[in-house]
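Readers of this paper often ask what the protein records in our data store actually look like. Below, we set out a record of this kind in full and without editing:
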Amino acid sequence: MTELPDVSPDLNPGSAMLPTRRRAGRRGGRHRGGSFTLPADSPTVVLAGASDEVMAELARNIEAAHPGVPVTTGADSRLGALTGSPAAVVVPLLLNPDPAFETPLREGLSELPVLVADPLGPHPILAEALHLRLAEAGLARADRIRMMSMVTAADGVVLAARIVSEGTEVTAVLLASRLAVPVVTAPLGDPEALAAATNELKGMGAVRPALSPFVFDAEPGEIAAAAAAAGAEAAAPLGGHPSVANLAVLRYVEALEADYTGD
């Protein structure tokens, strides 16, 4: 059996193991962000690369939107026990491309009957999820689709990521387009850079900036420290937000379509 490398960063040693398949959750209606529901005989959705808690929440959201479709978390050689052609599609839960994660993942799975999807970001749906987290915190007008009536509170946003990359900058542009306020990026763990980002926003006329954590999860103290350094109120991290689950399914479908067409 093919031996796969550990491809789950920042997780506990056992978190990359493939658990027992969960039963489908309650029906949650059609796939939000798309007008389809996956057939129950679709290949297994495999989520890899985030914490156990985030992947479990994403799995529940996918199962609710697509009843009967098997969803598992973690990618290892036991995927070879699945049957089908393909038997599964592995979705890397990466907010931006990361060859250091993706290359060993693809190489390790190359002899198994599975496909590997593209990373989640950058993509407008991630900007949607960030927008909704800000709205939940009362820091942005909510998505019109949800017909909520929160008043826009923030007039500038610091998008705080573990590592600021080209993909992070693209997401900042997408979020700024949604919110119609300036968005600047900064490393989540760099107090000086966070303060400089806020000063940049203030130079653009912002008087009440918000901190948007562009991470799946973080310790509460980490977000609080970043918010204090930025002098801004903070939204929650992305977590297993339903919009992120929708994006994971989209990447899954794209991988199946590419395999079908031979792209």
Q: What stands out?
A: Helices lie at 52-65, 99-109, 124-136, 166-179, 191-203, 220-230, 242-261. Residues 211 and 234 are 4 Å apart (CA to CA).
